[in-house]
Amino acid sequence: MKNENDLFDFQHFSLHHGKSTLKIGTDSVLLAALVPIDGVTNVLDIGCGCGVIGFCIADRIADQSSENVEVTGIDIDTDSIDEARLNASNFPHQEQISFLFEKIDLQHFILKKEQKKFSLIVSNPPYFGSSLKPENVKNLRSKHRDDNLSFDELVENAVRLLADDGHFYVILPTSEAIDFESIAKKKLHLCEKIAIRPVPDKPVNRFILGFSKQIPINIKEQELLIRDENRNYSREYRNITLSFYTKLK
């Protein structure tokens, strides 16, 4: 029996995430809220966990368009994929959005014959490379890229899977974002960079980076403040996540 605490309620849907490697949090929701969705016909979420990024993007698309869209999520964790499939079975917009969740690593996913190209690829990837690894295996898989998925492998395979006019977006802590940008810019063009600051008196601690195969006319750069000086959610953050959350404290 599922624990009710494992169920996270959004405005239009609910997701189980208690067994997944990475629980629903600000990073995944922000990434889903800020990626461009105009012209998106199919989405690939690398390291999908319970599927939260894909479901939030699907909800945005269904709210703004009547086009049919395919969302694919891959993860190496069995429980995460089981939970993502359960969430897909209960998700609205079934007539418009189709979901495929597969337990497979990116390296083997890319080897599939007649692999399609994706108009949007997203990832909240494992990022720690040199810090102490946690004892919990699930935390290891969700946060540490060692022996699972290096930044070089993530970029290389994303390039192969990305449509010529597609976009590839990630969210990462500051120091890891610097490393990732340096690696990705060898094969892709940076088109968007969003600095995320938790509160006014703290440094930026996350970056959302967007890349494309095409050279952008200009690189979009902005900063997003999560909470104001009174530790209340900022107006900008509320506006960005308004369609997702039932309430923000």
Structure description:
The chain is an alpha/beta fold and 249 residues long. It has one domain: Rossmann fold. The chain has helices at residues 26-34, 52-64, 78-89, 106-109, 137-143, 151-161, 174-184, 235-241, and strands at 7-9, 14-16, 42-46, 69-75, 97-103, 118-123, 162-173, 189-197, 206-212, 220-225. The protein has an 8-stranded mixed sheet. A two-stranded antiparallel ribbon has the order 1-2. β8 (189-197) and β9 form a beta hairpin.
Summary tags:
two-stranded antiparallel sheet; alpha/beta; single chain; 8-stranded mixed sheet; Rossmann fold; 26% strand; 249 residues; globular; 30% helix
Brief summary:
The chain has 249 residues and is an alpha/beta fold. Helices cover 30% and strands 26% of the residues.
Compile the SSE list and pairings.
Elements: E1 7-9, E2 14-16, H1 26-34, E3 42-46, H2 52-64, E4 69-75, H3 78-89, E5 97-103, H4 106-109, E6 118-123, H5 137-143, H6 151-161, E7 162-173, H7 174-184, E8 189-197, E9 206-212, E10 220-225, H8 235-241
Parallel strand pairs: 3-4, 3-6, 4-5, 6-7, 8-10
Antiparallel strand pairs: 1-2, 7-9, 8-9
